[in-house]
Design a protein that fits this description.
Length: 81
């Protein structure tokens, strides 16, 4: 199981580069930047019936480009005038 940012390589497995993370049921391994770290979750793998929880904290971007290429703040100011 894993997750990736939009910059992750779609032709590579999750955990391949710095834009994605993965966990495996075998040995409870986690993978990031193509490096596997075994037994990081207490030394046990995952099995049928186990519950795996994940939390991802997404930070809001302060500058979001509009379709015209200007920042959302500049686009909002232009729309207000």
């Amino acid at each position: 199981m894993g997750w990736s940012t939009r910059n992750g390589d779609l032709q590579a497995p999750v955990g391949y580069n710095e834009h994605s993370y993965a966990i495996r049921d075998i040995s409870g391994s986690r993978i990031h930047k193509s490096r596997r770290e075994d037994k990081w979750a207490g030394g046990e793998g995952f099995a049928v019936g186990d519950v795996v929880g994940c939390m991802i904290c997404l930070m809001e971007s302060k500058k979001t480009p509009s379709p015209s290429g200007e920042s959302s703040a500049a686009a909002a100011a232009a729309a207000a005038t």
